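Deviations from the work plan: none for this task. Representative record:
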Amino acid sequence: MKNRSILLVEDNADDVALMLHALKSNRISNQISVAEDGEQALHMLFADAVEPAKQPALILLDLNLPKVEGLEVLRQLRAHADTRLIPVVVLTSSLEQSDLHNAYGCGANSYVRKPVDFEEFVQVTRDLGHYWLQLNYPALEA
Amino acid sequence: MPTKIKPRQSVAYYFLVIWIPLVIIALLAIALLIRSNIEARTIVAHTEQRAQVHNAVLLLESSLGGIRSDALYLATLARLAPSPTRPQPALADNTHALVSFMQFNPQYDQLRLLDPQGLEQVRVERQNDRVVINPAQQLQNKAQRYYVQAGLRLGPGQLYFSPFDLNVEHGEIERPLNPTIRVATPVANERGETAGLLVMNYRGAALLEAMAALDSPRTGQLWLVNQNGYWLKGPKPEQEWGFMLPGLEAQSLAKQNITLWSQLIQPTQLGELIDEGAHYSFASIDLIPSESPDFEQALGRLHVVSRLSAEQLYALISPLKTGLLQAGALIVLLSAGLAYLLARSLAQRWHTESSLQDSEAKFRAMIEAAPDAIIITDTDGTIVLLNEQAIRLFEYAQLELLGQKVEVLLPEELRKGHIQHRQGYVSAPRPRLMGSGLRLQAKRKDGSELPVEVSLSPIRTPSETLVFCAIRDVTERRETEDKIKHLNNGLTAQNNELQVVNRELEAFSYSVSHDLRAPLRAIDGFSQILSTSLSDKLDEQEADYFNRIRKAAQKMSKLIDDLLLLARVSRADVLSAEVNLSSLAESAVQNLRELQPEREIEVQIQQGIRVEGDLALLQVTVQNLIGNAWKFTGKTEHPQIQVGTEMQGEEEVIFFRDNGAGFDMNYADKLFVPFQRLHSGNDFPGSGVGLATIERIMAKLHGRIWATSITGQGATFFLKLKLVRDRP
């Protein structure tokens, strides 16, 4: 598990920096890939015929993304056999009910709000890493 | 235009009007008929009287003529008997001849033959209906008798008639009375000399009986009066023979009826007279003068009188009169029946006419009472009737429209089409609106047009079908409709605008919730990273500045969250359900106790407060109010929070009470305005959006929120919501 990567889909460079800082300060050593928009994320997941073993162990997905919306990315992930079982955590600022509904409706495994308070942010990041990378057992592709 | 109705006339009125003239005419006719009949009957009666008199005269004449021929025959028979050889008449022969004659001629009582000296030769008498020959010793000399002396003065072939009087035997008037006429004629020998005298006693009773037989109730009473005016046959037996019977001298026509008598003694032989109501018809008979020489005593003149008294005439007339009167009564009765039938039919006809007029008047009144203009046309579209409203609506005079085609009330361009529609309607008439859904226009006399609504109904009478058109001026309604339509259009536009605004607001909220917080997170995050990494180089004030940066960012984040909540509440759809407010309050308190376990607050929540409303919105409300109470009791000793219901006037309201800081009632109106705060952020942090959000929620739930407070002693917030009560 520890060898597998985390895909962070986030267009805001500040958030990317804060997330990387929080992961580092929580000593999460997994490889971090960053996609700056939905299109890039899809490209990274499908375009180069990624081997199943090279697929990320966790996807942290923002919703409000340029080019291809986060929900659309999620929909395509779940539609594709190679990616449909990858745990996806929606990580966003919004607490709009419509967003929550749609995210779970499209197959999100979790929905987490990004706190403004950085100390809370670090705590959330630690909890996510602990849960999804250590406690949780993902289904392996056949 | 009220129709005049004749006053009702009764059957009795018509009856009298018809019957009285009929009765008058009938009575007049009957009276005329009676009069002419009386006249005719009188004439007939008088004629019959004349005939009666004539018959009586004939009877007298024939009787006297018979006597004459009998006397002359017997005288001749008696003359053959004496012959030269037998100078004396052959008495025996004569006697037998007289006896046999008597036996066959009962009108004679006595036959005698006298010699020229007046001595009776033969006397044959009727005694008790037997003819008897008197023996010779009883024969007498009658030379002194007036009839013997008169007879002997006559020549052969001549006759003497004695007066018509009563027979006297031996100086006494024979009883019973025996009226007699003595007839004498000389009997001659072969030389023609008077050889004797034949004397015959004629029984006058026979003549009088024959005359009496001519009397009849239909004619008058027949009288026979002698030349001296005495009755031989009179009104009554006791008035007869007055000249002979003692004490009856006064019983004479000449004395009792001078008027009549003066007529009778005129030379004329026929005459008539009306005297004292009685009608007299009379005739006189004079014997041939040669046979009645101027003897002192002779038959002389006889008068036959017929008297028809007023009573007799009346008796003749009265049955006729009665019959006619009965006929008249019958006619009156019949005419009464006829008049009644006629009167009844007239009254019925009047009644029918008046009820017809009555129903016409009602129909008229109904049409006039209708609020709409009403026009009735025949099947050709000709106007046959219209009401006042129609005249006012189209501004025509009534007579101008009657008889016109209904198309004159339409704008020219619609007329042709209307004729076709009208013909179509007539072929299948039924009640309906004209041109349903179309905006119909009509035209006034001055050419101006007006919007109308027309409803049509066929009226079927026995004789024809009419079309009933009710026309309503819908100018005002059209205007109102147009106004409403205009307003509706405005509302639709506003609604569309609102929807656009709402969508924009939604999009705005969405982008706020996604994008507005990211910079705050960056500010807070990088401040934190920097302050940590620089911690050993920063003095206390510099570290405080980093802290202030982070606090501001976090406060901004909370403010954004509250604003988003307010916006979400404003656009939320309200779902109605039964919500347990007590449970909501308890879970809110529970949450707060978990967040701040160090706070010791006495909380009392009334159980079972249930309201009707939207669960999510009510949750926001309760969390906010409990949160406020929790917050503002933060500096109170023995803090208390109470949730319950109480009566305010007639309303049951829910209250949230605390004993915290409270607020100044002077600023109570600012309590529910967004971003308005009554406490400093240092004392009690907050955004100032919470109560504004609750007020918005109350508006959405058709409820109300208000508050009372005493500064430093606490505040009470009241909610008016639709409470759900337990059903018994």
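Residues 123 and 351 of chain B are 102 Å apart (CA to CA).
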